[in-house]
Amino acid sequence: MSTETQGRRRSDDADFARTEIDVEALAAEIFDRYAGEQPIVVEGSPYRTTFFDRGYCPDFRVMTLAGRLAVAVNRRAKEEQTKAEQARAEQAGAEQGSADPLPPLRVAVEDIMLAALLHDLGKHHEDCASFIDLMRTTDLRGPHAEETAARKAYLLDIVRDVHCRKGPCMIDRLRDAGRAELNNPFIALVARRHGEDYATNRAADQGCWWAREINVVTIADDYDAMISPGPERAYKTTPIDEAQAATLLRVGAAAGRYEPRIADIFLRDVLGTDL
Q1: How far apart (Å, rounded) are the C-alpha atoms in residues 164 and 201?
Q2: If phi over 0 gives left and psi between -120 and 50 gives alpha, with beta otherwise, what is residue 42?
Q3: What values do phi and psi take at 167, rounded to 5?
């Protein structure tokens, strides 16, 4: 796997902010570690369970999109940093009027991808399972009666709240069974906060250091949910086409749901659209 590197302020590893990765191969490698039956520990007792089906897994799609976006952000950051350095050299002593270059991500691409794979793990918690079952047995597509729409909204609010609160618990169950890579606090933080808007995650009173990195996963997850026809996404939205999804991402960026520059990189560099 060829890797181009870029210096990092907060890591001694010179290979931290990676700009060239075979994301598909890395996604397959990560997924292979977590697909199929897994050992977990619940209240001190060992169990085995399955979180991801090898044959069909929407979280694999989200992980791959998040990896592609993370690499694209680091690549754009390097390009802007190089341009800024060249401008300073050409205009030594002159006042700089251009915007600050985009900073690279503070979390390694591999960890962002792992967090993206595990971001919805809270849906497997026993406190969330019954509400997921109710969602699946409720007709949520096409025109709905007022009562059905209200039921959808009620159940959706519960699922959003419970799975974000229980996600770190499920990650702990995997970690306690020997997954040392889950000691990284970013993994559980994404499970808890990926549903929050970027503006909320970066707020001074309740925000967090990794707001941008969490938003990488949020963008990938939201986009996949918008365009997915699969039944596992039925509780979120009726599938729309890629052009409509791109429009909604831009609207979300303007409203504070997404970090604008990262959303733009996703649309232009990952999806290849100027919409």
Answers
A1: 14
A2: beta
A3: -55, -50
Element (H, E) at 147: helix 146-175
Write out the DSSP string of 166-183. HHHHHHHHHHTTT-GGGG
Please, which residues have CB within 8 angstroms of residue 164's CB and are 6 or more apart in sequence?
122, 191, 192, 193, 194, 195
Its pTM stands at: 0.87
Domain ranges across the chain: 23-86+103-121+173-270
- Residue 218 CB partners (closer than 8 Å, separation 6+): 194, 195, 196, 198, 257, 258
Residue 145 pLDDT: 60
The Cα–Cα gap between 6 and 101 comes to 14
CATH of domain 23-86+103-121+173-270: 1.10.3210
C-beta separation of 216 from 73 below 8 A? yes
Residue with tokens 């949520």: 140
List average pLDDT for each run of 10 residues in the chain, which is 275 residues long: 40 70 96 96 95 90 98 95 86 62 94 97 88 70 63 79 93 96 96 95 85 97 88 62 94 97 97 78
